[in-house]
């Protein structure tokens, strides 16, 4: 099947060019079955690209070179709304600061490249990287997806996101950040400290904010049932985000913490494991989105050691998968907008498409794809720019060896993404 792609569309030196080198001119991808991200049925149409954008879907196009994609399926570039590129090393050694900055950087860069190879052209990093990494990828010095980042996660003292030793004073935690590379979390003891910390996060380049408002699975000093930060404290972060034209998302597993965040004005909820009907209704009425994260649950259930964690973490995650699936159904029934995020941690982040495979078991493959494209673009504030195959959108496209809407198992194996384009540039080519 792969030899059906014309191998001479671009000379070798052009395909190997830096990501900064725009493929100029007009050209077409012809013969593919197109699944455009809207939820509409697949169609066999040609897609024309000009200067990095989709110029036409269907019709004869404007001419130029042609890429023969007969027998392949085209989707928009996938979007992962919950990643941790900065947690690409084994977790416990990283949290105990036993890995050098050089090795941390190497692991992060490898994960960024693997993310692109899996068909994900845009990600939202929800904690762990500093602004320098986002800039490095954007400049094309490292292969990777388009990255939107919250910078350091905002946490309350002793809450989820703090992994220092019990004896270590909280004020020493920030000294473990690696400026320009890693910044896991910042601690606040009150609203004034939180205001200072979120302003610092924006200074470092954050494009949105993330707060931990409940305990978590990979936790050291908390429980899933804990609530963290008051409504008034969360509202301070919302106020600061709104002043910059952006939003707050929250790590939240229990309904009480979710309600606090929604009442304070947060626009998105990560995980939502124990979401109840009343809280889901409140989210829907306020336009608050939900991003469930199933892949990390599977990861921690079946390969805890591979993530660099001990078996106590596995005990914490027992039952989460079933409750999160119930929460997904509750949110759908309430009319909540539901995105998609993998939340993978540690070095095993190559199969990011597992999240679509798992979601396709709970919904339809098409619904999973729409969540990972059009809906995620809306949540990230990129509606119409990415996540769809439509005129005017960026030419972020994936050509799949097979039809993942018919066989969602294909999403999970990066080898099935045989050609990946980002902004009209070929960034992966298995021909």
List the helices and strands and how they pair.
Layout: H1 12-15, E1 26-30, E2 33-34, E3 43-44, E4 47-50, E5 53-57, E6 65-68, E7 73-76, E8 78-83, H2 91-95, H3 101-117, E9 120-125, E10 128-129, H4 131-138, E11 146-149, E12 153-156, E13 182-183, E14 185-188, H5 191-203, E15 209-212, H6 231-243, E16 248-254, H7 255-264, E17 268-274, H8 277-286, E18 289-291, H9 294-302, H10 311-317, H11 320-334, H12 354-362, H13 365-379, E19 397-400, H14 409-412, E20 417-422, E21 425-429
Parallel strand pairs: 1-6, 2-7, 8-9, 9-11, 12-14, 15-16, 16-17, 17-18
Antiparallel strand pairs: 1-4, 2-3, 4-5, 7-19, 10-13, 19-20, 20-21
Helix pairs in contact: 5-6, 6-7, 7-8, 9-10, 12-13
Instruction: Tell me the number of helical segments per DSSP (H or I, 4 or more residues long).
Output: 14
Number of strands: 21
Rounded to the nearest angstrom, the radius of gyration is 21 Å
- Separation, N- and C-terminal Cα atoms: 10 Å
- Unreliable sequence segments: 1-23
**Backbone structural class:** alpha/beta
Biggest sheet, spatial arrangement of strands: 3-2-7-19-20-21
Strand residue content: 15-25%
The main β sheet shows up as: 6 strands, mixed
Mean pLDDT: 91
Globular, elongated, flat, extended or rod-shaped: what is the shape?
globular
Protein name: Amidohydrolase family protein
Domain Amidohydrolase-related: 73-427
Description of the molecule:
This is Amidohydrolase family protein. Residues 73-427 form the Amidohydrolase-related domain. InterPro entries: Amidohydro-rel (IPR006680), Metal-dep_hydrolase_composite (IPR011059), Metal_Hydrolase (IPR032466), Metallo-dep_Hydrolase (IPR051781), OTAase-like (IPR057744). Pfam families: Amidohydro_1 (PF01979). This protein is of the alpha/beta class and 431 residues long. It has helices at 12-15, 91-95, 101-117, 131-138, 191-203, 231-243, 255-264, 277-286, 294-302, 311-317, 320-334, 354-362, 365-379, 409-412, and strands spanning 26-30, 33-34, 43-44, 47-50, 53-57, 65-68, 73-76, 78-83, 120-125, 128-129, 146-149, 153-156, 182-183, 185-188, 209-212, 248-254, 268-274, 289-291, 397-400, 417-422, 425-429. A six-stranded mixed beta sheet has the order 3-2-7-19-20-21, with no helix packed on it. Strands 5-4-1-6 form a four-stranded mixed beta sheet, with no helix packed on it. Helix 8 links the parallel strand 17 (268-274) and strand 18 (289-291). Mean pLDDT is 91; it is low at 1-23.
